Amino acid sequence: MPSLSPMPDDPQPLDIPGNHTLAAIAFTKSANFSTLIGEDEQHTQTILSRDIELMTEICHEFEGSVLKSTGDGLLMYFVSAVSAVACAVQIQKALTAAAENLPPQDILQHRIGIHLGDVFFCDSDVMGNGSLVAAQLQEVAEPGGICISQTVYDVVKNGLALQATYCGLKELKNLADPVPAYQVVLPTKIAGGAAEEGVADVRTYLTRKQYRDRIVLINKVRKYWISGVLETGLRDRALIALGLNPRLDALELTWTNADPAFNSLPPVTKIIDKFKQLQKRRTLLILGEPGGGKTTTLLELTRELLLSAEHDYTQPLPVPFNLSSWETKQSLADWLLQQLHIQYQVSKDIGKNWLQNQQLLLMLDGLDEVSILKRDACVQAINQFSLEFGHTHIVVTSRIQDYELLSNRLKVEAAVYLQPLDLEQIDEYLNKAGAEIAAFKQALKEDVILQELARSPLMLSIITLAYQGNSFEDVAQMYSLEERRQHVFNAYIERMLKRRSSQQYSQIKAMRWLIWLAKQMRDKSQAVFLIELLQSSWLPNIWYKLIYAIIIGIIAGLLCGIGGALNLGILIDWELGKIAGLIIALGTGIIAAIIFGLIYDKINPGETIKWSRKKSRKNLRLGLIVGGISGAILGPFGGLFYRFVLKLGDGWGEALSLGLRIGLGVALIFALLRGLNEPSIETSTIPNQGIWQSAKNARIFFLLGATGMGLVAFILGLPVLVGAITGLLFGVFGAGEACIKHLALRLVLFCNRSIPWNYARFLDWATEHILLQKVGGGYIFIHRLLLEHFAQMGNR
User: Fold this and answer.
1) How far apart are CA 289 and CA 276, in angstroms?
2) Each residue of 106-142: b (16+ CB within 10 Å) or e?
3) What are the residues whose beta carbons fall under 8 Å from the beta carbon of 440, sequence distance 6 or more?
4) pLDDT single digits (tens) 86-129
5) CA gap 236, 241 in Å, rounded
6) Helix (H, G, I), strand (E, B) or coil at 180
7) CA 260 → CA 250, 256, 274, 281, 417, distances in Å?
8) In what order do the strands lie in the sheet with 414-418?
9) Nearest alpha carbon to residue 465 among 428, 499, 442
10) CB atoms within 10 A of CB 258
11) What are the two backbone dihedrals, phi and then psi, of residue 651, each rounded to the nearest 5 degrees?
C-alpha cells in the first residue's frame, strides 16, 4: 500500500489533536492504478492528480476535510455519516460523467469505503477503529463503487433516498468480529464499467450547493443556540422537568382544529412528542411566566428537530428568531430575510428561496418582547404569513400575561402552558446543588414569598449561584416579591463580577457599560446584540451626532482631497493639485458630513462578496468575445470622431487603435466582474463580522475599481495611475462607507465612556462571567429579566 502523506493545504478537522471523537471516515483507492502505471507511469500520475483534485473539491463542498493522500487515494473526514455518503455518491457520479468523454487509457476507477466510529487524531494522522474499518471496506467495494458499514447504513437509510445491497459479514484484518457491509447502488453506470440499475439520487430535492447551504445552517443553529445557549445555560446545574398544560383558551380555533391529544398532558411530557402529534401544518404557541423556561423549551424542541432535519433532507430547517426586532413597516417574510442575513450570514437570494419553498421551520421566540405598541400588529403579521405560506411550521413563545392582554390571537393548532415549579421539584434541584445553599433551603421552608420567587427556573438557578456559601439573612429582611427579586439579581451580578479571569475590568466600568447596553437593547427592542448593528441613533443627543458627522466628513474629505491632489498633480501641475486638493477636501468633507452623517446615517454592513481568480480566468474567453464585439462596434465610431470632429488623422488608424483598447479593456473588466462569487452562507461567524466583511468588500472593490478605471484611463489616453487612484476612491465609497461610519460611531461612544475600545473583548469577558451568552457573532443577556434589571438600574 502506498505510504500516507499529509495534505498540507487542506483544512484540518476541528477536533483537538490527541482526543478521541466519533467521526465518519472515508477511504478512496484506485482500482486499476497498478495496471495503468505499469504501462505509462507519467501519464497515470497525471490523470490520478486530476481525479484527486476533483475528489478534494467535492469533499469540501460536503463540509469534509481531506486528511491525507494515500498515494493513489484519499483519507477523508466528515462530522456526519450522511455527509460522507452523499459526498461519496457525488464523487462517483462526477467521475462517471467525466469518463463518458474519455478514452479507456484516461480512466481510473476508484473504490470508496466508509465507516462511522471512534477515531484518534495525532498531528496529521488518524487512527482507531473508524479508520481501520473504512480502509478495509474500501477494498471490499466494487471498482467505481461504495461500500459502507452497517453502522453507516443505519444512520443514512432513512435520511437519504438510498438503495444499498447487503453483502454479508466481512472478515477484516485485526478485528475480532466480522463487520456487516453494504454496497451502495449508484444512480448511474460505474465509471469505465458496466451499467447499473438507476435509483433516485441521494439528494433528490437538492443540488450540491443547496445541500452544502443546508448543512452550514444546521451547524450554525446547533453551534449558536444549542451548544452556545441551551447547553451552557444556568440550569445545567440540575435539569428541571417542566410540566405542560393545555391552554385551549389561548387559541382562535374552530371545532376541527381542536386536538384531543392536548386535553391532558402528563407533567413529564416532552414537547417534541406533542409537536409531532400535530397535523400536517404544525403551529404551536408556548406560554409561561417570566423566567419560566419558554426559551429553554423552544431550544429543546429545536435540538430534536435539528436531528430530523440533518438525517432527512425533506424535513424543514428549524431556525430560532427573536421577534423583538420586528418592525410594523415590514412583512414577516421581509423581516425573516433580514434576520437570516444578519444573524446567520445567509444571502438574501438563498433565504428567499428557502421561504418560497417553505423549507424553514420558524422558532419565533419572545412575542412579549415586541414593543407593546406593535405587539398586536406582530400577531397579525404572523397570521398573514401563515395564510401565504400554509405549509410552513411555526412555534411562538410569549409570557402569558402579555399574551392575554392582546386584542388579536395567533391562529395556531395548539398551545401549551409551562407550569411553574412545585415545591417537590425545587427541593430536588436544591438537593443536587449541594450543601452550599443550606441556609437558603432552610429559609425556603418558612417563607411563602421566597417560595413564589423560587418557582421560576431562572430565579432558582440565579439564587443557587448568587448565594452559594452565603447566609440568606439580607433577603429575609425584605418583604415584597419585587424587592427580593432585585436583591437576588444584585447579589448575582456582584458575585459574577468578582470572578477572576485573564482580562480584568473594574466593577464600575463593567457596570456602566452593561447598563448602557441593556438600556439601549431594551429601548431599541433588541434581544440579540451585534456590534456591527450599532447605529447613530444610539448616541445620547444631537451634539454627539454632530461630532459623529464631523468625523465622517474629516475622513471622507482627507481621502478625496488626497486623491484629487494626486490626480491633478499628475495631469496638470503639482502646485495646482495641492490647492485643488484642499478645496476638494473641504467640499467633499462638508457634503459627506451632511449626507452620510446626518441624512443618510444608517450603517448597513456589506453582504458577503468574494472574488475568485479561478472564476475570472474561466470567464476570460467569454470576456474576449464580448470585448471583441464591443471594440468592433465602438472602434469605428471613435475613428469617425477623431476624423470629423477632432480633425485628427485619417480615422482608420485611430479606429483600429481605439477598437483594440476598448476590446481589451472590456474583456478584462468583464472577467474581473464575473469573478465575483454567487451568494452563499458564511461557514464561520465572528463578532462584528458585518463590518469586517464590509472592509473585505472594500478591498475587492479597490482591486476592481483600480483595475477597471485604470483600463478606462488607458482607453482615453490618460495616465493609468489617474484611473487607478479614481478606482481606489470608488472602492472606499462603494463598499467602505459602512466601515467609515462604524469607526466614527465607535470613536464617539468610546469618548462618551459608553463602550470600551475593544468591545468584543469586553463582551466575551461578560460572557465568561455568566452575564451574557454568545450567539454566533452576537450576544444576549442570560435572560430577559437580567436585561430589564440592568436597564432599570440605568433609569435609577
Assistant:
1) 24
2) bbbbbbbbbbbbebbbeeeebebebbbbbbbbbbbbb
3) 430, 463, 464, 467, 472
4) 899 889 988 988 888 888 888 888 999 999 887 777 655 667 77
5) 12
6) strand
7) 15, 10, 11, 17, 16
8) 244-246, 414-418, 283-288, 394-399, 360-365, 317-322
9) 499
10) 15
11) 95, -35
Taking the C-alpha atoms of residue 492 and residue 75, their distance in angstroms, rounded to an integer, is 50
368 vs 349: CA distance, rounded Å = 30
In this structure, what are the phi and psi dihedrals at residue 78, rounded to the nearest 5 degrees? -135, 145
Between CA 702 and CA 709 the distance in angstroms is 10
Helix (H, G, I), strand (E, B) or coil at 286: strand
What integer pLDDT is reported at residue 12 of this predicted model? 46
Q: Do residues 29 and 110 make contact, with C-beta atoms less than 8 angstroms apart?
A: yes
Asked if 628 and 684 touch (Cβ cutoff 8 Å), the reply is no
Question: Tell me, what DSSP letter sits at residue 370?
Answer: S
| 8 A C-beta contact, residue 502 and residue 469 | no
Integer-rounded Cα Rg, in Å, for the chain is: 32
581 near 562, Cβ under 8 Å?
A: yes
Indicate the residue type of 349: D
In order of 145, 267, 284, 303, 304, the CA distances from 277 in angstroms are 40, 17, 11, 17, 14
Identity at 694, one-letter amino acid code: S
- Over range 742-749, report the average pLDDT: 93
Pull the grid cell for residue 754.
459608553
Residue 762 and residue 603 in contact, taking contact as beta carbons nearer than 8 Å: no
DSSP state of 374: T
**What is the DSSP code string of 134-172?**
HHHHHHHSPTT-EEEEHHHHHHHTTTS---EEEEEEE--
Nearest residue to 773 (alpha-carbon basis) of 535, 605, 527 = 527
Tell me which H or E stretch contains 283: strand 283-288
Collapsed DSSP state (helix, strand, coil) of residue 181: strand
| Alpha-carbon distance values, 282 to 263, 336, 394 (Å) | 17, 19, 7
What is the model's pLDDT at position 486? 82
Half-sphere exposure of 152 (CA within 13 A, CB side): 37
Cα–Cα distance measured from residue 168 to residue 179, given in angstroms and rounded to the nearest whole number: 8
Q: Which helix (H) or strand (E) holds 184?
A: strand 179-184
Burial of 587 (0-12, 13-18, 19+ CB in 10 A): middle
Task: Answer whether 83's CB lies under 8 Å from 64's CB.
Answer: yes
Cell numbers representing residue 312 in the block: 432527512
Angle at 164 between CA 161 and CA 166, to 5 degrees: 150
101, burial (CB in 10 Å: exposed 0-12, middle 13-18, buried 19+): exposed
Report which residue type is found at 261.
A
Q: How many CB atoms lie within 10 A of CB 105?
A: 11
Task: Tell me what pLDDT residue 193 has.
Answer: 40
Q: Of 161-165, 210-214, 605-609, which range is least confident?
A: 605-609
Q: Are 118 and 20 in contact (CB under 8 A)?
A: yes
For the beta carbon of residue 390, count every other beta carbon within 10 angstroms.
10
From the list 87, 82, 78, 88, the residue with the least C-alpha distance to 112 is 88
Residues whose CB falls within 8 Å of the CB of residue 794, separated by 6 or more in sequence, listed in order: 515, 516, 518, 519
Tell me, what DSSP letter sits at residue 260? G
**Alpha carbon distance 87, 85 (integer Å):** 5
Q: Which of 138, 308, 290, 142 is nearest to 214 (CA)?
A: 308
DSSP 395-452: EEEEEHHHHHT-SS----SEEEEEPPPPHHHHHHHHHHH-GGGHHHHHHHHH-HHHHH
pLDDT tens string 479-509: 567 777 787 888 888 888 887 766 678 889 9
C-alpha cell at position 489: 439579581
